Amino acid sequence: MGAQETVPSVRRTTGEDSGEDRRGGHDGVRDREIRGEQQHLDAVYRRLEEKIHEAEFLMADAAKRAQVGTPGALAERDAQVFRAGVHLNRLNSEFEDFLFGRVDLLLGKDGERGPDGAYTSVEPADDAVRPDNTADIAETLHIGRLGVLDADYTPLVIDWRAPAAAPFYRATPVAPGRVVRRRVIRSRGRKVLGVEDDLLRPELTAHLDGEELAVVGDGALMAALGRARGHSMRDIVASIQAEQDEVIRAPAVSVTEVEGGPGTGKTAVALHRAAYLLYQDRRRYAGGILIVSPTPLLVSYTEGVLPSLGEEGQVAIRALGSLVEGAEADTYDEQAVARIKGSSRMVKVLRRAVRGTLDLGAPGSDGVPESLRVVALGARIELDAEELRRIRAQALGGTAPVNLLRPRARRLLLDALWRKSGAGRRYTDPELEAEARQGFDEDVSTETDFTGFLDAWWPELTPRRVLAAMGDERRLGRWSRRVLQPREARRLARSLSRLDADGSGPLSVHDVALLDELRVLLGTPARPRVKEADPLDQLTGLEELTTYADRLAARPARADRRAEERADYAHVIVDEAQDLTPMQWRMVGRRGRQATWTVVGDPAQSSWSDPEEAAAARDEALGARPRRRFELTVNYRNPAEIAELSARVLALAMPGVRPPRAVRSTGLVPRFAVASGGGLGEAVREEARRLLDEVEGTVGVVVAMGRREEARAWLDGLGDRVVPLGSLEAKGLEYDATLVVSPAEIADESPAGLRVLYVALTRATQRLTVLSGERDLPDGDGVPDLLRE
Ligand SMILES: Nc1ncnc2c1ncn2[C@@H]1O[C@H](COP(=O)(O)OP(=O)(O)OP(=O)(O)O)[C@@H](O)[C@H]1O
User: Domain UvrD-like helicase ATP-binding, which positions (predicted)?
Assistant: First the structure.
């Protein structure tokens, strides 16, 4: 079903009802309805095949033109091949599960048609319903992943993002508009497998082509929610709910904020919104859409959704640890260190660290000569420590980033050497003097004495190098004085001391935001760009240098690279926004300075210990732009039995916050187990095995972060349906069944531990087992202290 989150509010004709002949359980009716949809799908495929032939013909025709051989014909051919290829590609890739919805509509208020061929009116005409509550269906629309027009321009399929498709998602029994019946069609390949209907105007007796409208099935939403989960997320185009649809189609002005509890579809909505925005204004979003996800696990979980919606190239989904080119991090610091690295106090520390690292090159420091000596104009010229100090101070007088000050420092050194050589006094003609000076500069600046000195005295710093310099406890103590407490500085230095002096070595996710800040503080000197040969350019000439297939194959790689290099996006979507630290907000903010934003999150799931500081940083990143807020209120993931248990932890973590309402109940209450004689590992293995037997799909085993390695070993050999996870890694993911190991350990791991536990308890779509360890103080029923009513 499409809109409206609660199925029970829609009247469904059942076996006991008088409407026997309209009933879903009646196999004859069901078969007839499926046959009808099959005929429509066949017609759609015939039309798609015609389109494919058209595209192929265009390509063949273009190839013939190439044989004519004039440059004009070649260029024309190329353009045709390109268009046909794009068309073919799209058609082929979107063939699967192509058509999924249908609405049957009353006559509309006016007769205007939109660009997709459908009538535009939302409200029914005054005489659409007769006084005896009967009506005729005036229009039937099929909704799919891509719009298809018949040869005579009547719509065979409407793109799900088109305005005409909105009633499929928006109509509710309270506000049905023109919609009498909404149908979800399930198909595999070219075969229709089933239909699920909702009747939005149950009071009406509606006729279509002289026959009473039939209603079939138990509702598509329930069917979708009950299905087993795999390792990747699926799109929800067939069952987007009304409150979700409002967010997806909200105009992209400034900032759209979406809040909602676990399982309310925030991530799904964010992804569908990206596809919608591209559809609705492709030109505007050619600048790219960035989706920021908290973890690489969530990135790979969600990656398939946009391609399934027909959108790829323009959207980059990046984990927080992968936003900076050349840095790829997926490990986490312990919470106390992460808190320091994430705090906005780091901006000051990093500023000082940049200056401090540069000063490591001051004369007298390790490996830096006290003076600069060069041989020029046949004489030795020397600048002593005091002169060098003055030049350094003068160069640093500028406000530009230190790497950009390096050319200035170099020039000041050359000026001083020239003055000292006394050569300037020999010239009265300024032109001759300038010429001599130029020769002097060229000679000196290519001398290894000079270049070697400059590299030591004013090195071009890399962000990694500065970060590595902060790994020295004494130094960092100086640079962070009165900003960090000495204990914090020691912790931070210890964490960064893993890096080698040049900064190579493993980075944590929180280091990446520091690197990005340093990149800005240091500045990137301009470098000459090597122009990449574009195969498309080559084809405007006479020679056929590449085939079309080559170019098609080369295109994705180029598009990828472009996305990586891009630093500023047209729209930025932040998922799990409650978890960004102030430093991460600064990093993400830099990627969308001109962008519109969609920010989705749930404060109750925040694993950041100081939500107020993070909120302030978010405000800074988003600036004074106006914000439009939406709330999602229905939990589609957890059955009521699991939602009820997790609500107990929510009440402890965030007193007064209301959990979202679960839409379904399975009758399966969570299981409580207690580790006994054999120890925690054995109990985990046993409980995981039990869950694997009970569900078809995936089992997530959530342990405290400190137990991740152990958990991997415990579960070894149980197959890839079972996934061990540290509590922070579970964010955003879901499993058919979840085993939460020792709630007390998870809750005690950080100041935000209760919220992290709430996240862990809300991952399951079917079954939940809670396993108590020593610290959980389980009662006689095995219920741990934290989960008792
Ligand atoms: N309208 C819908 N139709 C079918 N399934 C839906 C719908 N909305 C959400 N779901 C499903 O509910 C589950 C939860 O969705 P999603 O992960 O987007 O929620 P979330 O709000 O991001 O959760 P969390 O805050 O826990 O990360 C997913 O399996 C999603 O496919």
Answer: 239-639
Q: How many angstroms separate the CA atoms of 317 and 569, rounded?
A: 12
Take residue 270 and report the two structure tokens written for it: 């964010």
The pair of structure tokens assigned to 583 is 């430093």
What count of other Cβ atoms lies within 10 Å of the Cβ of residue 103? 27
Instruction: Please give the Cα distance from 239 to 590 (Å, whole number).
Output: 35
Separation of alpha carbons 77 and 60, rounded Å: 10
CA–CA gap between residue 613 and residue 449 (Å, rounded): 50
Q: Is 407 annotated as belonging to a binding site?
A: no
Q: How far is the CA of 637 from the centre of ligand 1 (A)?
A: 6
Is the shortest distance between the CB of 734 and ligand 1 below 6 Å? Answer: yes
Cα–Cα separations (whole angstroms), residue 351 to 323, 357, 431, 456, 467: 21, 10, 43, 20, 11
> pLDDT digit string (tens) for 187-239?
877 888 888 888 888 888 999 988 888 888 766 677 677 776 777 888 888 88
**Alpha carbon of 251 to ligand 1 centroid (Å):** 22
Determine whether the shortest distance from the Cβ of 244 to ligand 1 is under 6 A: yes
Distance of alpha carbon 617 from alpha carbon 583, whole angstroms: 8
Q: Which residue has the higher pLDDT, 187 or 667?
A: 667
Nearest CA to ligand 1 atom 15: 265
Name which of 579, 578, 600 is nearest 259 in CA terms. 600
Residue nearest to atom 3 of ligand 1 (CA): 239
Q: How far is the CA of 686 from the centre of ligand 1 (A)?
A: 29
pLDDT digits (tens, 9 = 90+) for 149-170: 888 888 898 888 888 888 888 8
402-421 and 509-522 helices, crossing angle to 10°: 40
Question: What is the rounded distance in angstroms from the CA atom of residue 440 to the CA atom of residue 419?
Answer: 11
- 208 SS3 class: strand
Average pLDDT over residues 304-309: 80
Give yes or no for residue 637 CB within 6 A of ligand 1. yes
535 annotated ligand binder: no
Which residue, judged by its Cα, is nearest atom 1 of ligand 1?
240
DSSP characters for 522-571?
A: H-----PPPPPPPHHHHTTSSS--S-HHHHHHHHHHHHHHHHHH----SE
CA of 266 to the centre of ligand 1 (A): 6
Residues 6 or more apart whose Cβ sits within 8 Å of residue 308:
145, 234, 235
Residue (of 523, 520, 514, 463) closest to 492 by Cα position: 514
With a cut of 50, say whether residue 533 has pLDDT above it: no
| Residue 670 reports pLDDT greater than 80 | yes
Annotated ligand binding at 348? The verdict is no
pLDDT in the model for residue 669: 96
Dihedral of alpha carbons 360, 366, 367, 373, sign: positive
357 among annotated binding-site residues: no
The long-range contacts involving 79-88, CB below 8 angstroms and separated by at least 24 positions, are 81/548, 83/58, 84/54, 84/55, 84/56, 84/58, 84/59, 85/55, 85/59, 85/548, 85/552, 87/51, 87/55, 88/52, 88/55, 88/56, 88/59
Query: Which residues lie below 8 Å from residue 603, measured CB to CB, with a gap of 6+?
Result: 259, 578, 611, 654, 657
ipTM surpassing 0.90, yes or no?
yes
Ligand 1 center to 31 CA (angstroms): 31
What's the confidence (pLDDT) of residue 544? 25
Label residues 519-541 b or e (16+ Cβ within 10 Å = b). bebbbeeeeeeeeeeebeeebee
- Contact 239 CB / ligand 1 (< 6 Å): yes
3-state secondary structure 111-122: CCECCCCCECCC
Tell me whether residue 262 is annotated as binding: yes
Q: Is any atom of ligand 1 closer than 6 Å to the C-beta of 236?
A: yes
Residue identified by tokens 């940049």 is 354
Task: Report the C-alpha gap between 640 and 570 in whole angstroms.
Answer: 39
Is pLDDT at 511 greater than 50 in this prediction? yes
Q: 3-state DSSP helix/strand/coil percent for the chain, to nearest 5?
A: 45, 15, 35
How many CB atoms are closer than 10 A to CB 574? Answer: 29
